Amino acid sequence: MALSARKPLPQARLDRENANDEIYERILVAIFEHRLPPGTKLVEERLAEIFAVSRARVREVLARMAHEQIVELYPQRGAYVAKPTPQQAHDVFEARRLIEPALLRRLIATLTPERVARLRQHQELEVDARRRDDKRTIVRLSGEFHTLLADLAGNSALARSMRELSALTCLIIFLYDAPTATSCRADEHGEIIDAIAKRDATRAEKLMLEHLAHIEGSLKLDTATQEVDLEAVFSS
Ligand SMILES: [Zn+2]
């Protein structure tokens, strides 16, 4: 039986989408781990070499990330890791305050022992990373906790939004956080998981809003919004 060397189209398309997803995930993880700071130039041909794919495929991934505001594209100059402004940072936290309580309610309404176990497993990874003082892993796992909640809540559109918001939060923390701080406080994720396990939606939502307020409060957004008045500086 003669087999065609060419794969049927659906499989080929699936492979391409999987490859794009993998490149997307690897760039996203690098952002989560603060290995790709805001403003980093993402050179198409180098990424194509690194991932052993065509430039066109890299361009597709970068276009998707640009659509999600994680990457900024400039004609003639190329792609850069986004640098969210203080206003965009406020917008991200406002969106998170709306989405994350809703995700928690949905997760608790559909909770299974397996989902609680998955959350506990993640918590152990975070505790372990903190014990080793592995800053990159701590930052990544902190962001992933929130995307995991969204994944487990089982609404794909909300999960997708949460993924974007988490990536943007990582960039924002990179830009506006105190250098010594690491996004999420250790004990707070554990408390949220406890409330979920007890199916206490009111408490889980309250803890989440406090948690987000702590993260946003640790950022120096207000100083960054002040424009320096050069005349005032040199007037005396
Ligand atoms: Zn957190």
What do these coordinates show?
The chain is mostly helical. The protein contains eleven helices and three strands; from the N terminus they run αβααββαααααααα. The radius of gyration is 20 Å and the shape is globular. Residues 142, 145-146, 184, 189, 211 line the site of zinc ion.
Beta-strand segment tally: 3
Summing up helix and strand content along with how strands pair, one would put the structural category as: mainly alpha
Helix share, percent: over 70%
Strand content is under 5%
Radius of gyration: 20 Å
Number of helices: 11
Main sheet specs: 3 strands, antiparallel
Overall pLDDT, averaged?
86
Order the strands across the largest sheet as they lie in space. 1-3-2
The ligands bound in this entry are:
zinc ion
Write down the overall geometry: globular
Distance linking N and C termini: 90 Å
H/E element sequence: HEHHEEHHHHHHHH
**Unreliable spans:** 1-5
Labels describing this entry:
236 residues; mainly alpha; binds zinc ion
Write the layout of secondary structure elements.
Layout: H1 9-32, E1 41-42, H2 44-51, H3 55-67, E2 71-74, E3 78-81, H4 86-109, H5 113-131, H6 135-153, H7 156-176, H8 186-197, H9 201-217, H10 221-225, H11 230-234
Antiparallel strand pairs: 1-3, 2-3
This protein binds zinc ion.
Concise account of the structure shown:
By secondary structure, the protein is mostly helical.
